[in-house]
Amino acid sequence: MTYTPSDLRLARWHARDGERRITALEQNISRAKARGQSTELAERALATMRVTLSLMLDHLNAIEQSLKR
Question: DSSP letters of the chain?
């Protein structure tokens, strides 16, 4: 597949956004635990978000490598 610099910018934005969302959810989980609230669903969502971010970073890397050629 042929990628463009716009694809790279968008992939970087998605990765940064994913990282921000993960950080926010981690903080919310910590606060919920401190209040004694259940975090099971949030922790499952967090695990899914981490897998998704990993895939996004793999895609970002593929775009970067493609544009270096």
Answer: ----HHHHHHHHHHHHHHHHHHHHHHHHHHHHHHTT---HHHHHHHHHHHHHHHHHHHHHHHHHHHHH-
Rounded to whole angstroms, the Cα distance separating 8 from 4 reads 7
What does the alpha-carbon distance between residue 17 and residue 33 come to, in Å, rounded to a whole number?
24
- Token pair for 39: 């975090």
**Which residue do the tokens 């890397």 mark?**
61
Specify whether the CB–CB gap between 64 and 12 falls below 8 A. Answer: no
Write the pLDDT tens digit of every residue in 9-37. 999 999 999 999 999 999 999 999 999 99
